[in-house]
Amino acid sequence: MRLAVIPARGGSKRIPRKNIKLFCGKPMLAWSIEAALQSGSFDQVIVSTDDQEIAAVARQYGATVPFIRPQQLADDHTGTIPVIQHAIEWFNDEGHAVELACCLYATAPFVQAEDIRRGLEVLLQTGSDYAFTVTSYAFPIQRAIRLTEAGRVAMFNPEHFNTRSQDLEEAFHDAGQFYWGCASAWLRGDPIFGSGSAPIMLPRHRVQDIDTQEDWVRAEWLFKAMQAQLG
After folding, report:
1. Its Gene Ontology molecular function terms (predicted)?
2. Beta carbons within 10 angstroms of residue 121's beta carbon
3. Around Cβ 123, how many Cβ atoms within 10 Å?
4. Disulfide engineering: 63 pairs with which of 58, 79, 80, 132, CB 3.0-4.6 Å?
């Protein structure tokens, strides 16, 4: 089976109740659930949560919540891979063998069903262990600076001070939307950021981390602008 797993624990601290806080008229979690369902890529779309209120919202928008996530997998230090492993193992134990699993973040309102479908195609066509969304940095990372203890600045790569931007290698980063993967790779705990992964390119205007209140405001502005253009 092909399984979508949306991790959504209840203990968000920087933005309390972030996963079900209203974002442009819907609980944040709802956008990811709807994109997953609209993609038609999954046999089941589940939410992995330790929180009964989040579970109720998830069910309201069409996801299933077949289990409540154990507390030891719901703290600030639990990574993505153990959460997906737990979901795959749960279904395998129930007699529903998982072939492919996609981790879809609950705080990814810009995710689109067509990108999820494209991710599945990339995974299957390339024979990769994982396929996940990436986007390019807006500024050459080789020209980045850091702040020193003395309150001054220093380049991370001073040898590139005089290098033209167009001569520097383009760099990319995780877009933080979804991660398709073979169940075997998830269960082995293979690293996602490695040679076994294939990229799914996204434009920068559809990528926004939402970790702070400032991020949230910016994301709503971007989302409303995109909706107005489409409408």
Report:
1. N-acylneuraminate cytidylyltransferase activity
2. 14
3. 23
4. 58
Question: What CA–CA distance (Å, rounded) separates 63 from 124?
Answer: 25
Residue type, position 45, single letter: V
Query: Do residues 100 and 2 lie in contact, with contact meaning Cβ atoms separated by under 8 Å?
Result: yes
pLDDT tens column, 94-119: 999 999 999 999 999 999 999 999 99
> Quick one: fold of 2-135+172-230?
Spore Coat Polysaccharide Biosynthesis Protein SpsA; Chain A (3.90.550)
pTM of the predicted structure, to 2 decimals? 0.93
DSSP structure string for the chain? -EEEEEE--S--TTTTTGGGSEETTEEHHHHHHHHHHHHT--SEEEEEBS-HHHHHHHHHTT-B--SBPPGGGSSTT--HHHHHHHHHHHHHHTT---SEEEEE-TT-TT--HHHHHHHHHHHHHHT-SEEEEEEE-SS-GGG-EEE-TTS-EEESSGGGTTS-GGGSPP-EEEEEEEEEEEHHHHHHT--SSSTTEEEEE--GGG-----SHHHHHHHHHHHHHHHHHH-
Nearest alpha-carbon partner for 190 in 202, 199, 179: 179
The confidence band for 175, taking pLDDT boundaries of 50, 70 and 90, is very high
Give phi and psi for 161, each to the nearest 5: -60, -40
